[in-house]
Amino acid sequence: MKRVKLDFAGLKVEFTDRDRALKQVEELAERGTRFPIVVFGPEGCGKTAWLKQAAELLREHGYEVIYVDPMHKDFIVHTDIKELLNKFVEAASEAAGVAEAKLASLAVTAVRWFMGSRRRKAAVLVDDAFQAIGLDKAAMYVKSLLGLTEYPPEGCERVVAVATTSEGVSKREIGRHRWAELTPMWNMGRRGFEELYEKIPGSKPSIDEAWRLTGGNPDALRRLHQAGWSVEGVAFGLIEDKEVTSSFIERWRKPLEAAVEDPDSLWSADAPEELVRELIAKNLIIYNMYGRRLERWIDEPPPERDLELGIGRHVAWQTPLHREAVRGALEGRR
After folding, report:
1. Residues 269-295: what's their mean pLDDT?
2. CA torsion angle for 196, 263, 238, 328 (degrees, to 10)?
3. Left, alpha or beta for 10 (phi > 0: left; psi -120 to 50: alpha)?
4. What are the extents of the domains in the chain?
């Protein structure tokens, strides 16, 4: 299998590890998807890298493949239909606010085109489409993917439809319906993370320290590297990006203090529902971590509990740096 090259911290690196996740793509290639698969997980955990490698793997299995990342106007088209490729180029050149929605819509249209032209196998891989089209349209977009997989026309042997999201709010919206299989993906395992860590040149903290700070999240590693390994610099950036304001901290101080020690405190019956909703909306936590049965997860699930990394049985901070950002705000380090 050809390993795709990915941008990482100013470097070009080969897709690393995720062996079980790639085997799962091979299984999808063999049977298709009866329902669209919506993969959720922490920001920067590697969903985009996995989707891009999946596009290559499905191409090698004879699929016509569309990968699209509407928010970054990025796409991969594995087909010999040049007219279709031109349509993606045109859509990506549209103005901001228009191109994103057009690319998301075109991904679905393209697979219908494959079906209509009696292509045997077609795949659509959509990366964070729900940011592009808006939360109010997330469920209907998933239903349009279901329309591709549920009743493929005669002559179309298999269809694979996968979408990803980092947004807990969109996960809740999609989960209200029975139009998709919601499947979690976690940060990288230790072995794969070490491979990625070794590719970063120059002086750096020990692998144990890098693991403790990032919990295996590739984007957290990238942020630290680009910030000169300043934990406070990255944490302060997260405080600003996530709008962890002084008023937010003072309103929720006690339950936040409990959550930085043990995120499962947010799962208790007396946890403030409004706080939980806000932490989900700010993409600070993953709420409802599912059981750790392998079949529920893309790649390897996280440990049952690892409080050093901010992982509880039911709730987890997206990375230890997300928790550190909130801890810093609680201590007045801004």
Report:
1. 94
2. -110
3. left
4. 5-184, 190-292+301-330
Which two structure tokens, joined as six digits, stand for 132?
């592009």
Identify any residues that bridge with 76 across adjacent strands, giving them in sequence order: 67
Instruction: Fill in the amino acid letter for 262.
Output: D
Which H or E run includes 61? none
- Average the pLDDT over 90-114 and give the result: 89
When the candidates are 2.60.40.1930, 1.10.3210.10, 1.10.10.10, 3.40.50.300, the CATH number that belongs to 5-184 is 3.40.50.300
The counts of H helices and E strands in the chain are 15, 10
CB 263 within 8 A of CB 285: yes
Token pair 């059981």: residue: 291
- Tell me, rounded to whole angstroms, the distance of Cα 101 from its chain centroid: 19
Query: What 8-state DSSP symbol labels residue 217?
Result: -
Structure tokens at 172: 């809740």
Cα separation, 255 vs 239, whole angstroms: 18
* Segment 207-225 mean pLDDT: 97
pTM given for the model: 0.92
Torsion of CA 21, 26, 30, 33, to 10 degrees: 30
91 by Cβ neighbours in 10 Å (0-12 / 13-18 / 19+) ranks as buried
